[in-house]
Amino acid sequence: MTIERLALTQPIDSRTGSFAKDSYSSNCVFETTGGGTKRELIKRPGLVKATQVVAITPPAYTQCQGLTEYNGTLICAINNVVYQVDPTTYVKTTLGSVSTSTSQSYFVRTFLDAYLFMHNKVNGYLLNKAGTKSQITNDKVISITIDNPGLNYSSGITLSFSGGGGVAATATVTG
Q: Are residues 114 and 71 in the same domain?
């Protein structure tokens, strides 16, 4: 099968006097004018090498871990520190640090925006409308509610807690 050259971007011309190679253009685009009868080579804009006037050291960067809107402000996690930024005055308030993690932080607003839940794949945090951030710990059981009792939940099984609560509380399952 013979090689067939197709004119996709420019007319097929020969660089060497043979049809072994297509025409070559560098750093330019083709523009057709005059009803498609005339083609012009136009230099691409912005590809001229400019000399650097002042030597610039690349700026140091910080790890941005997440950004969301909450209670009319912006909440962002940067380098494991949570900030609250007023979008009109750009006043920044530091809300505190989060556990050391370089991973993405995720944000979810609760019903009626009462709280902002955030986590960074290590710990979870709650932020209230007053701007108080607290860490969610796993050492407490606040309440247990069974919405759909299913089979054998309501008959024969009893769950009770003793010890006054906190870390000293013990759970007993009877059934």
A: yes
155, burial (CB in 10 Å: exposed 0-12, middle 13-18, buried 19+): exposed
Q: Dihedral (C-alpha) 92, 93, 96, 99: value to the nearest 10 degrees?
A: -20
What string of H, E and C letters represents the secondary structure of 113-142?
HCEEEEECCCCEEEEECCCCEEEECCCCCC
For 112, the token pair is: 């009626």
Here the CATH number for the domain that contains residue 113 is 2.20.25
Q: Identify the three-state secondary structure at position 167.
A: helix
Tens-digit pLDDT profile for residues 126-174: 999 888 888 887 666 666 666 665 565 555 566 666 666 566 667 666 6
Give the global pTM: 0.47
Distance of alpha carbon 133 from alpha carbon 116, whole angstroms: 9
The range of the structural domain enclosing residue 108 comes to 64-136
